[in-house]
């Protein structure tokens, strides 16, 4: 049995009890846990996760919401979920606005089912998916001069996003022929898409190791 192709979550939290709760709630995801934004930035320089879970009050007095610009510099497309019991309403709204905004703010004590649902929505609809929708919107509005190459690039990103959603949580080798048929492209295109996703760290290398299922 192959390991399942799970999404990765960077958890920035300095409370061991909270980390234990998150580990229980997010079973099935690959978690990397650090206790400060400083440590998180080092992780992001080496590997970009699919979602960032960010506590507001951290080790050494760091405030997660105030450090969003530094995180966005390294991972602008990654959805961020802030969890805080201290942010006032105005501060929550500020964290959700502007170019360096978070995708969600959840209040402590966070309901675990709410956390699971929010992470899934962030994976499926925010970040990568949001970027694809924005590019398509710009094309429709004709606010960019869309060449055939640019259009194909947008379609490739959209297809890769769908592949990610389809493969996450499974443990079977991708069926290239079926994926090609469903996406209405040839098998070579699907193989290239999978290679791109592996290169970006969004799928494990096992996806393209050896002979892929036909």
Kindly describe this structure.
The protein is an alpha/beta fold and 214 residues long. The chain has two domains: 118 residues, Response regulator (Rossmann fold), CATH 3.40.50; 67 residues, Orthogonal Bundle (Arc Repressor Mutant, subunit A). A five-stranded parallel sheet has the order 2-1-3-4-5. The two termini are 18 Å apart.
**Could you tell me the radius of gyration in angstroms?**
18 Å
Percent of residues in beta strands: 5-15%
- What coarse outline follows from CA principal-axis ratios? globular
Number of strands: 5
The low-confidence runs, each spanning 5 or more residues with pLDDT under 50, are: none
CATH architecture of the largest domain: 3-Layer(aba) Sandwich
